[in-house]
Amino acid sequence: MLQQTAGIHHITAFVRNAQETVDFYSGILGLRLVKKTINFDAPEVYHLYFGNEIGGPGTIITFFPFAGSRKGRIGGGQVGITTYVVPVGTLDFWEARLTQFGVSVMKASRFGEEYLQFADKDGLRLEIVEREEGPQSQWTFGGVPADKAIKGFGGAVLYSTAPESTMKLLVQVMGLQKVGQEGAYARFRATGDLGNLIDVRVDPMPYGAGGAGTVHHIAWRAKDDADHAEWRRHVEQNGLHPTPIVDRQYFNAIYFREEGGILFEIATDPPGFARDEEAEHLGEKLMLPAWYEENRPAIERNLEPIEVRVLEGDQA
Predict the structure, then answer these.
(1) Sign of CA dihedral 196, 157, 169, 241
(2) Sign of the C-alpha dihedral, residues 14, 284, 127, 123?
(3) SS3 of 13, please?
(4) Of 78, 108, 166, 240, which is the most exposed, with the fewest CB atoms less than 10 Å away?
(5) pLDDT band for position 315 (50/70/90)?
(6) Residue 86, Cβ neighbours under 10 Å: how many?
(7) Strands 252-257, 60-65: parallel, antiparallel or unpaired by DSSP?
(8) Contact (Cβ atoms closer than 8 angstroms) between residue 167 and residue 122
């Protein structure tokens, strides 16, 4: 049976400051904080999820804010650039908005598309591109109206230490189709309409170093639990070494590292973020898995308070 992912499920990165991260991704970029929880493996650290109005697969960027952590170095074995997609005709709005908030913007082009490239407070590299495909976000916050809001991921740019192996895996294991090559990049398309265009630097990149401002892993979509189990078998049959299935509360996950050094995850679309909060109240309360509930008072005392707030530049 041919396995084909619809595209990116989520991308997870390291940052230093939780409130600065909320201010950047909700305050400036207008994304919804859809889940405020903890790193299940390190409960003293937040795990923050941002996306569209429901945190749909293909829209979710997540962060582990480690205060005082080392600065990372973007390089091989990582997602080099995370790509967001916005409605056609809104790139000027986004250039003006980023500039208004003191974010330095550079223009670039690949495969006939124009991009705005910039970085967050920790140096995580991001870009915005206009495309017709993909459903419109229904979320509005601060100075970002719904008709100009980020739809979700356009895709990502992968930096590999062994790009030929990475590109082969994208086609033969993940089920993407190679659709072009231009200069330093090859482009691959998944079957979905968000998070579906993956560009790979075709020259080997020296290894990066994990830390603030770098991506920890990129997660790909599985339709449901049955499809997820098939993905695990499929990955293993192709000579890779997936972890056992891990319950992440809002999706199930497996992890494996491909030959170019990039940590891949495959995550289920369901159950989603409304499993433990009403949709209209997503991200408002610190949500803990059942096995941590008895420790809630100590966990809450240890975490710095954060709030989603309209930034000064958007206040009338």
Answers:
(1) negative
(2) negative
(3) strand
(4) 108
(5) confident
(6) 24
(7) unpaired
(8) no
CA-to-CA dists, residue 235 to 20, 55, 161, 230, angstroms: 37, 26, 20, 9
* Per-residue pLDDT tens digits for 188-208: 999 999 999 999 999 999 999
Q: Predicted confidence band at 316 (pLDDT cuts at 50, 70, 90)?
A: low
- The single-letter code of the amino acid at 60 is I
303-309 contacts, C-beta under 8 A, 24 or more apart: 303/18, 303/38, 303/44, 303/46, 304/18, 304/19, 304/67, 306/18, 306/19, 306/22, 306/36, 306/46, 306/48, 307/19, 307/22, 308/22, 308/26, 308/27, 308/33, 308/141, 308/283, 309/22, 309/23, 309/27
- Domain spans of the chain? 8-314
Q: Omega before 271 cis (within 30°)?
A: yes
Residues near 261 by Cβ (< 8 Å), separated by ≥ 6? 76, 77, 78, 160, 161, 162, 207
pTM of the predicted model as reported, rounded to 2 decimal places: 0.97
Q: Provide the residue count of the chain.
A: 316
pLDDT in tens, 96-123: 999 999 999 999 999 999 999 999 999 9
Q: Determine the 3-state secondary structure of 64 from DSSP.
A: strand
For residue 109, how many other CB atoms are within 10 A of its CB?
10
Which numeric CATH code is attached to 8-314? Answer: 3.10.180.10
Instruction: Report the C-alpha gap between 270 and 267 in whole angstroms.
Output: 9
